[in-house]
Amino acid sequence: MTQTTLTFIRFENGSWQGHIQASSEPSLEVSYQGETLNNVDLSPAVDGWDLRIQVPVAALSEGVHTFVIADAATAEKLGHFTVISGEPAADDLRAEVDLLRAELDMLKRAFRRICRDGC
To answer: What is the pTM of this model?
Structure first.
């Protein structure tokens, strides 16, 4: 089984773009503040798939906003990105804490799904 890998391409005009290498079309879940985003586009490309995530306008406000990209079937985290607005901060601890919260939310959803489907 081939491992799915996500590579960042660019972030511009409110759109985060990446490339996914996988043996078959991935089923993705992009979460922001515990909610799954619907504005995610996955299109075939050379050697994989191109991923485009339109960042919600709500994330372009003061604070730290983390997006987690995961395999919907396995709940395995493929990557993440953080948008920090407001006062600039290098190596901001708030971004790390926000990422931990987002990953914990993802784990809780996966655990609940497992319990619901087969406990």
So the answer is: 0.77
